[in-house]
Amino acid sequence: MKVGFIGLGIMGKPMAKNLLKAGYEVVAYDPFAKANLDDVVAAGAIRGESNAGVASQVDVVITMVPNSPHVKEAIFGEKGIAEGAKPGLDIIDMSSIAPLASKEIAEECAKRGMRMMDAPVSGGEPKAIDGTLSIMCGGDPAMFEQYKEMLGVMGASVVHCGDVNGAGNTTKLANQVIVAVNIAACAEAFELAQMAGVDPEKVFEAIRGGLAGSTVMNAKVPMMLSRNFNPGFRIDLHIKDLNNALETGHGVGTPMILTSAVQEMMQWLHNNGSGSDDHSGILKYYEKLTGVELGNL
Ligand code: NAD
Hints:
By secondary structure, this protein is an alpha/beta fold. It has helices at 12-21, 34-42, 51-55, 68-76, 81-84, 99-111, 124-130, 141-152, 167-195, 200-207, 215-225, 235-252, 257-271, 282-290, and strands at residues 2-6, 25-29, 46-47, 60-63, 90-93, 115-118, 121-122, 133-138, 155-162. It has a six-stranded parallel sheet, sandwiched between helices. Strand 2 (25-29), helix 2 and strand 3 (46-47) form a beta-alpha-beta unit. The chain is globular. Nicotinamide-adenine-dinucleotide binds at residues 6-12, 30-33, 51, 64-66, 70, 73-74, 95-96, 121-122, 124-125, 232-233, 237.
């Protein structure tokens, strides 16, 4: 199968490479990430010249861009996918965007004779590289069945979350709320240990296998302990997800008490020049409040 891949950032680049490794023909394009495009072409992809140019060569296009406006631009903008699409083109949007936007984009695609499925992912760059992402899909079940095997090349789990477009993105928002609150809880708890005079390294060793242990703790606490805040997942992208979660929550009447608290922490970090840090950088918010850096005692 010949697959278009648009958006070759932190996540898209390794995902496109995994499709190539599995034997798919890939036509790749990113208007800004030239070095990543070169890298994917060196791995065997055909170089696309525009989003429309990619769409004209394939039956299915994957998009992996930051947020709803970028997905709209990639599909309906100048030299966009819709401009180059063959009749019956399928689009799988793997970006994390607002569920309502996903539904609206799918409806607009349908008017133009294209099917669209939302399939956002969780797992971050390491799992994108390993091909072990968690992929959560929303939309036409027949389309899901058609592409489940291909998505399985990029993910360890591929789940159809609902027939409605946006169901995958609603699932992703639930995921992002849990990750954000978990990171903030880790930052708060490890600052507590530090200030109370117990070595945070020892605390991590002691509790990681117990009930408090989590994938988030295992991935993010070592970054806090080594004060390595290279992304990973940028605070600015998590602000986007929490904004989408708050908007969705307010739309359906869900109280979003913890989400709004962590959103304010991240917004402070953004305003203080840390928006491009990994989200484990929430620690810096606590350090600013306490004046105490995490480290060996
Ligand atoms: P990124 O910023 O590294 O990459 C996004 C890429 O999209 C960029 O290279 C950019 O040039 C490209 N792009 C923007 N507008 C475009 C357009 N109109 N047409 C074509 N390409 C365009 O972001 P990322 O970290 O790879 O994240 C991508 C998506 O995956 C986001 O929605 C993010 O929330 C989600 N996500 C990221 C992670 C992570 O750990 N980084 C984990 C899970 C999900």
